[in-house]
Amino acid sequence: MTISSAEAVVQQQLDAYNAKNVTEWLATYAPTAEQFTLHGERFAFGHEEMRARILVRFSEPDLYAELLHRIVMGNIVIDYERITRNFPDGRGTLEMMCIYEVTNGLIQKASFAIGAQKLLS
């Protein structure tokens, strides 16, 4: 199976996320990339806003994204993930659908659908 360049950059993004490496994570995004809630508001524009948001997330000791399924169609990559997080009420998980649009080897837009939080016992 051949891995597309779009899939490769999204995998690099996921690997950097799980390594909590903000520099490598941002390197997968265009400088003017945008992040959105699915069908909703933009919550980050550009590296400066994205860096501020991800540094908060990377401070969580149990943060980890497990890829459950991936669909690739041209320059669009859709990941279905289970995210382990440290919520105010304790350690837990949530499901997330991540839709990435890749152009010229960088993520230009990303939209996220976030499922309900489940605390782990």
Give the helix/strand layout.
Blueprint: H1 5-19, H2 22-27, E1 29-37, E2 42-45, H3 46-58, E3 64-73, E4 76-87, E5 90-103, E6 106-114, E7 118-119
Parallel strand pairs: 1-6
Antiparallel strand pairs: 1-2, 3-4, 4-5, 5-6, 5-7
Protein name: Steroid delta-isomerase
Domain SnoaL-like: 10-108
Pfam families: SnoaL_2
Rounded average pLDDT: 96
Provide the helix percentage.
25-40%
Number of strands: 7
SSE topology string: HHEEHEEEEE
**Broad shape:** globular
Structural class: alpha+beta
Radius of gyration: 14 Å
The count of domains is: 1
Number of helices: 3
Largest sheet entry: 7 strands, mixed
Strand content: over 45%
CATH fold name: Nuclear Transport Factor 2, Chain: A
In the CATH hierarchy, what is the architecture at level 2? Answer: Roll
Could you walk me through the main structural features you see in this protein, from its secondary elements to its overall organization?
The protein is 28% helix and 50% strand. It has 121 residues and is α+β, with helices and mostly antiparallel strands. It has one domain (5-119): Roll (Nuclear Transport Factor 2, Chain: A), CATH 3.10.450.50. Strands 1, 2, 3, 4, 5, 6 and 7 form a seven-stranded mixed β-sheet that branches. It is globular and about 45 Å long. The mean pLDDT is 96.
